[in-house]
Amino acid sequence: MRFPAQRHPVLKTGSVMLLSLGLTVLPAMDVLAADPFADVKWTTVAHATLDEKDDATLCLFNPDAGVKTKVSGGVATVVGTSEVDGFVATGIWRPIGGDDRTLVEVAVDFKVGDTQAASVVLRLPSSAGLWCMVYYGGYYAHPVHFAVPFTVKHFKEPSFKFGDETRVFHSMRMVLNRATMELSYFADDVLLSVVQFETQVEPINFIQANVETFGGRGMPVDASFDNLRVRVAGPRQPVKRST
Q1: Which residue in 41, 84, 47 sits closest to 62, CA to CA?
Q2: Would the N or C end of the chain have less CB density within 10 A of its end CB?
Q3: d(Cα 183, Cα 197) in Å, to the nearest integer?
């Protein structure tokens, strides 16, 4: 199990920036915000440390014959050259339980290779649609897959990155606050974006980390994952799972 470096960089402001890989254009916010969840006492409900190959709750998926996912040396690696024309996702996932609290945090640590040409995605389905956070030469909140109305309350320039993602593990994490119905996106402890849903989000069932290729056959893939995890905090909420 590895732990990401923690940074507090100074970010410059901008006038008009893209929120995600989509076409949403919004005015940029100004100062670097402190992590509002820094002092929360979390309870872990799922944690794939990848220190053991026989973790029965961890699933590897390899839909691309040219790209393999394996667990070795305390990390999961996704390495190869795509043999698929079009979009394909390769990676790891695991089911979770116990998500019925006010706060839920989902996260994964990752590192990319020098030849990385695909996007690394922290992804999971919910009653509000897909939560996606992407690293593709920079960190992106990616709200285009939400299935309910939402409002963007805060975001930063999506080209932000630490610059050493090929050498050091960093975290992508998302925190849902059911009391305010806000989903916050972080790179390590740097707050990047906040969106607010107009409906309550039901408990989530699993968490997934992917490497997604979309440029077709011959695209090189090289990424490592660690600490795929879910934590909760706060009072229990009267949310019910869909039947």
Answers
A1: 84
A2: C
A3: 8
